[in-house]
Amino acid sequence: MKKILLISAYLISISCYGQEKLECHEKINKQLFTESRDTVMEKFNIEEFNKHQKNGSWTFKKNNEKYFLTKLQDEYWVEISTKHNPFILKCNYYSNGNIKLKGLIFHGNAFTKGVVVDYDKEGNIIKQTDYDAPYKSFQWEKVKLWLENRKVDLLDPFTRVWRENENNRPIWYLSWDTKEHDKYGNKIIQDVELDGEKGKVLKETTHTFEE
Questions:
Q1: Residue of 92, 90, 64, 63 lying closest to 79 (CA atoms)
Q2: Per-residue model confidence as pLDDT tens digits over 140-170
Q3: pTM of the entire structure?
Q4: Which of 28, 91, 112, 149 could crosslink 78 through cysteines, CB 3.0-4.6 Å?
Q5: Could you tell me where the beta strands, DSSP code E, fall in the chain?
Q6: What sign does the CA torsion over 129, 29, 157, 86 have?
Q7: Residue 10 in 3-state DSSP?
């Protein structure tokens, strides 16, 4: 019990700018996420979802959080986002409602942050993958500061952050709206590649986006 709760609290806390957020079971709507005392896991409330879903999805807001729930084939997916947070908490569930996967992702389906936890159909942890491991030398917090020093709005839909670690060479890929336009009125998007070990700028280019 304690192990699961600590992991849940950790995932929520790293998704926030500050540390004042409540723990997972206080933060997430208990109407949708209930805890089974027998198997010690979180469950998706299928009955409640079926009452409210339209065309296989249900979107609503509660306590400054936006919830998007959907069913895809034999799984249920949940995305929880907040207005001032660039990260989205994503949870996948088996067809019986038991938790399958839990992790954080930068908005726009960009990079996965922190530890992603995988569960079997009985709710037992079977794998924990630390996606931050290759970027310990120049982690997200430093990238965040780098972007903020350049007045980049992390919440802007045109702000993209993703990363790759090919051949043990970690690289951050960043792009954002410069708020400038070319002579044709197209947005000018700045693209930057940062070395994932020292934060050195490897490449800097621009491209345009036609609105």
A1: 90
A2: 999 999 999 999 999 999 999 999 998 999 9
A3: 0.77
A4: 91
A5: 33-36, 41-44, 57-62, 65-72, 75-82, 87-93, 99-106, 112-119, 125-130, 160-166, 169-181, 187-195, 201-209
A6: negative
A7: helix
